[in-house]
Amino acid sequence: MENNFKMIAITFFGMEEILAKELLGLGAQEIIKGNRSVNFKGDKGFMYKVNLCIKTAIKILKPIFSKKVRNTNELYEVFNEFPWENYISVDKTFVVESTVFGKIFTHSKYVSLKAKDGIVDRFKKKFNDRPNVSIKDPDLIINIHLNDNLCNVSINSSGSNLNQRGYRKSTNIAPINEVLASGIIKLTGWNGNSDFLDPMCGSGTFLIEAALIAGNIPGNLNRNSFAFNKWNDWDLNLFNLIKDSQLKKIKKININIFGYDKSPSAIVKAKENIELANLSSDIKVFQKDFFDSKKEGSNNLHIVTNPPYGERLKGDINSLYSKIGDSLKLSFSNTNFWFISSNFEAMKYFGLRPSRKIKLFNGKLESRLLFFPIYEGTKKIHKK
Q1: Phi, psi (5° rounding) for residue 260?
Q2: Which of 68, 126, 210, 378 shows the greatest Cβ crowding within 10 Å of its Cβ?
Q3: Residues 119-150 pLDDT 10s
Q4: What Rg value do the Cα atoms of the chain yield, rounded?
Q5: Sign of CA dihedral 217, 222, 228, 229
Q6: SS3 for the chain, per residue?
């Protein structure tokens, strides 16, 4: 279609395949996987749809031009010559965000400053006035990606990162990123076809993201705004049509989604977040120690969790991992157990051999998503 344009969905390392599948399911065209990104095409309405619905992307960028630049003077000229008045007026605000790679440009903040100067000077010359820079809630977010001498410039259609779903009011110590949590659940192959448990649920992120998947609920339905709301071509009627269409596709959740945490404050926070996500009837949380629990009923059970570490952990992490392994073997037979960890040494104490290992990053920490299928008959536990 002639109204289609290129977009770039940014994601985490290891999530590219999952994101590409999600984009395909939403109707994206010409999908090309990159490094922590997926390129695709769609029209303005599809850009609205992707931002509203996507669960495994951090942001959606709309490329506007690419130029080769050899130094900061050329960078300034490129930004000074581009018709920014087509995107923003003098009474609006903007910000420039830069990422640099290579030996030519090494300071991202300086790149942003030179680009900003080029934009401001253009407005001063043409209109004798200029838009102001605003880091907080700007009207236009300009994204620069400089790889050696290739300068790719986009505008950010999302605004604040899409992990800011609008449901997280309360957090536990070191909560997992919502986009990462959703991607992890999708990597485990779970799609709402069995009961789901997070036995160390903290503030409830895995549980909420699981419910969004199971109910086919748009990932950012509870979000207040997107960057494109402030663009010159913002079309409220089109956005509402797309939103109404997606609301009709929400499904009833017919499986059990539940979580445990031994911390009373964690359970309070989880309940607050679940209520904000309008999922109180679909998710149940209980103050309970995982090590005092057992699998209930004969339904298939899928467990995904992010065990406590660092500040969240009181006691020896090796002993914790050993106890998790023992509890699974004794009390959770016929269960698919997945967990993410960055402590490679403690993994050795689990007492079970993972059938899958997937490399991910939890923040800056290199991690592994591990899969342990727990079968009937695996009863050998660690000697005390």
Answers
A1: -120, 155
A2: 210
A3: 999 999 999 999 999 998 899 999 999 999 99
A4: 23
A5: positive
A6: CCCCEEEEEECCCCCHHHHHHHHHHHCCEEEEECCCEEEEEECHHHHHHHHHHCCCCCEEEEEEEEEECCCHHHHHHHHHHCCHHHCCCCCCEEEEEEEEECCCCCCHHHHHHHHHHHHHHHHHHHHCCCCEECCCCCCEEEEEEEECCEEEEEEECCCCCCCCCCCCCCCCCCCCCHHHHHHHHHHCCCCCCCEEEECCCCCCHHHHHHHHHHCCCCCCCCCCCCHHHHCCCCCHHHHHHHHHHHHCCCCCCCCCEEEEECCHHHHHHHHHHHHHCCCCCCEEEEECCHHHCCCCCCCCEEEEECCCCHHHCCCCHHHHHHHHHHHHHHHCCCEEEEEEECCCCHHHHCCCCCCEEEEEEECCEEEEEEEEEECCCCCCCCCC
Name, in order, each residue with C-beta under 8 angstroms of 177's C-beta and a sequence gap of 6 or more.
Answer: 12, 163, 362, 363
Query: What does the alpha-carbon distance between residue 272 and residue 169 come to, in Å, rounded to a whole number?
Result: 7
Measured between alpha carbons, how far is 62 from 142 in angstroms, rounded to an integer?
10
Q: Would you state the structure tokens that stand for residue 263, as one six-digit string?
A: 């911390």
Token code pair at residue 141 = 């977010």
Q: Based on the number of CB atoms within 10 Å of its own CB, is 169 exposed (0-12), middle (13-18) or buried (19 or more)?
A: exposed
Q: Encoding tokens for residue 19?
A: 């994101």
Domains and CATH numbers, the chain: 5-156 (3.30.2130.30), 178-217+249-374 (3.40.50.150)
Q: Are strands 283-287 and 365-374 parallel, antiparallel or unpaired?
A: unpaired
Q: Which pLDDT tens digit goes with each residue over 316-329?
A: 888 888 999 999 98
279 to each of 128, 318, 366, how far by Cα in Å? 52, 35, 32
> Does position 315 have pLDDT exceeding 70, yes or no?
no
CB 289 within 8 A of CB 262: yes
Q: CA torsion sign, 22 to 23 to 24 to 27?
A: positive
End-to-end CA distance of the chain: 67
Q: pTM above the 0.70 mark?
A: yes
Rounded to the nearest angstrom, the gap between the alpha carbon of residue 291 and the centroid of all alpha carbons in its chain is: 30
